[in-house]
Amino acid sequence: MVYKIFVALLLSFQLASFAPSVAGAPSPPPQAKDWPFDVTELRAPDGSITAKFVSIGATLTELWVKDKHGKTRDVVLGYDNPEQLWTDPAHPVFNAIVGRYANRLKNGTFSIPISRSPTPGDPNVYQIPTNAHNGRFMDLLRFLAPFLSDLVDHSKQVTLHGGIVGWDRRNWTVERKSRTSVTYKHIDAGDENWPGTVTAYATHTVENGGILKSVVKATATEKTPIMLTQHIYWNLDAFQDSTINTVLDTHHLQISSSKVLDVDSNMIPTGKFIQVQDTAFDFRQAQAIGARWDATAVLCGEGCQGYDSEWIYDNASSGRTSLWSENSGIRVDITSNQPAVQVYTSNWMDTPRKAHHGGSTKNYGKWSAVALEQQGYVAAVNTPEWGVDQIYSPERPFEWSSTYKFSTVD
Q1: 8 — phi, psi (to 5°)?
Q2: What is the dihedral of CA 130, 132, 133, 139, to 10 degrees?
Q3: DSSP assignment, residue 119?
């Protein structure tokens, strides 16, 4: 316990030191006294959906929708105290906007123009701090406290979700808000050694009929990779049945995709694809998430069971991911302007629950939720053979959008 408290305090102190990195940016409008942990509540006029956000990471903290009996449930994981978005060393990335480059980047290295194996130190090659191995966030102590280096795995070969401190742990500012919408702004002034300055606006809106829309628009001062996602963890039962602690049997998943990315032992794409037919990846027809669970033991890396893979939509302009629970009857249909979805079944989760999810005496355990991350091709900047262009510039702005439509099933 003392060790965990020490790590949390150390992490909080170190993260606070990143605030001056945007000191040269225009001053934001006056923020709430509890910024960046200030809560903004959005409520649809018809009462079908209520969402709460905080400025840190432009993060969704609660999402209340009605089940098949008309009772409202908060269907996303999170903390009772949003300050833990800063301080929790486990860092599950609860429901934030993730960037500047979501998911994985091989060896934290890329070049512009892109190449498969750029050499650090060469012209036009950029090196971003690595923070993960085998696709997992590792203990940040190597960066935060070098004198504790003997406690840390030094074999990190991946930059995960933007670097040591990605956009999910940056202090976005409220630009404008209404009863149904809020817009946050973030200026990434070359943080983590990314090239140029990127200015991003994230707008979250709720609408009648149980709809949440999230849109992020970004502009860059020079050429840079940008690939974002919204890292929402879903449990559509909201832990209201104390006998059900995972999503494996009650939650059904459908993805309009015939292929997933093939990956190496670090969960970095090889450049090849796996056809889903006759595999545990086949969710073209709706299946319980755990329907082929025995076959997932080797899918997410050594010592891991579950899904942590990217499905490429068959039609990038009309891709859809659907999730529903036979218990609560809540269904969410997700559409996006992105070509792919990363499905992560919370394989390493072990975090105290919100009070209305059972309280801090119970934890969100592994497989207690599923993240459905709408995004671009993972590590496309390291995979030129795909012909996927993730380099943005003053002449080429970036836009990410997703719509979550809630309904009920019997």
Answers
A1: -60, -45
A2: 120
A3: P
In what helix (H) or strand (E) does residue 141 lie, and over which residues does it extend? helix 141-144
* H-helix segments, 301-372: none
- In the numeric block, the tokens 């860092």 are attached to 91
Residues taking part in catalysis = 231, 373
Q: How do the pLDDT tens digits run along the chain, 410 residues long?
A: 443 444 444 444 434 433 433 334 445 557 888 999 999 999 999 999 999 999 999 999 999 999 999 999 999 999 999 999 999 999 999 999 999 999 999 999 999 999 999 999 999 999 999 988 554 554 343 334 443 333 333 356 899 999 999 999 999 999 999 999 999 999 999 999 999 999 999 999 999 999 999 999 999 999 999 999 999 999 999 999 999 999 999 999 999 999 999 999 899 999 999 999 999 999 999 999 999 999 999 899 888 999 999 999 999 989 999 999 999 999 999 999 999 999 999 999 999 999 999 998 999 999 999 999 999 999 999 999 999 999 999 999 999 999 999 999 99
Cβ-contact 359, 345 below 8 angstroms: no
Token pair 């602690």 in the structure block, residue = 245
3-state DSSP helix/strand/coil % of the chain, to nearest 5: 15, 40, 50
157 touches 107 (CB < 8 A): yes
Residues 235, 368 contacting (CB under 8 angstroms) = yes
Using CA atoms, how far residue 268 sits from 212, 301, 383, in Å, is: 31, 11, 10
- Token pair recorded at residue 81: 């105290």
In a 13 Å sphere around the CA of 378, the CA atoms on its Cβ side amount to: 32
Q: H or E stretch including 133? A: strand 132-133
Q: Work out the widest C-alpha separation in the chain, in whole angstroms.
A: 61
